[in-house]
Amino acid sequence: MSAPSEIRLKRAEQVIEVAWPDGARFRLPAEYLRVESPSAEVQGHAPDQKVIVAGRRHVGIMRVEPVGNYAVRIVFDDLHDTGIYSWAYLRTLGAEQETRWATYLAELGARGLSRDPPRR
User: Fold this and answer.
1) What is the pTM of this model?
2) Separation CA 60–CA 36 (nearest Å)
3) Residue 118 burial (CB < 10 Å; 0-12/13-18/19+)?
């Protein structure tokens, strides 16, 4: 998988824009990136272990850090920072955004969970 030609954090909008050499472009919201984190904490160690992360509607991105020549680490303002987003995974997240987001919303609903953080 080739590296993106550009990765830009838009802090005010809380999105990461990713452009690829072939012309593909994706706008990936912070909440989507957080709930689809590639970390073991979210994905588990097998497909049936994936955790549905609720309450992240307002999560922000503090920074995006390069990891070698193959990935980035995204540091979220809820202090989650263990996911390493490979170029291939970022491309998949962009290409499958609509389907993955719909599945996430359906899972939240089925479990009686919300995108909103719990009230204190």
Assistant:
1) 0.94
2) 14
3) exposed
3-state secondary structure the chain: CCCCCEEEEECCCCEEEEECCCCCEEEEEHHHHHHCCCCHHHHCCCHHHCCCCCCCCCCCEEEEEEECCCEEEEEECCCCCCCEEEHHHHHHHHHCHHHHHHHHHHHHHHCCCCCCCCCC
Question: How far are the Cα atoms of 8, 15, 44 from residue 113, in angstroms, in the given order?
Answer: 31, 23, 19
Q: Which residues, in sequence order, are CB contacts of 45 under 8 Å at separation 6+?
A: none
- The model's pLDDT over 61-117, given as tens digits with 9 standing for 90+, comes to 999 999 999 999 999 999 999 999 999 999 999 999 999 999 999 999 999 999 998
Phi/psi for 106 (5° steps) reads -65, -40
**Number of Cβ atoms within 10 Å of the Cβ of 3:** 14
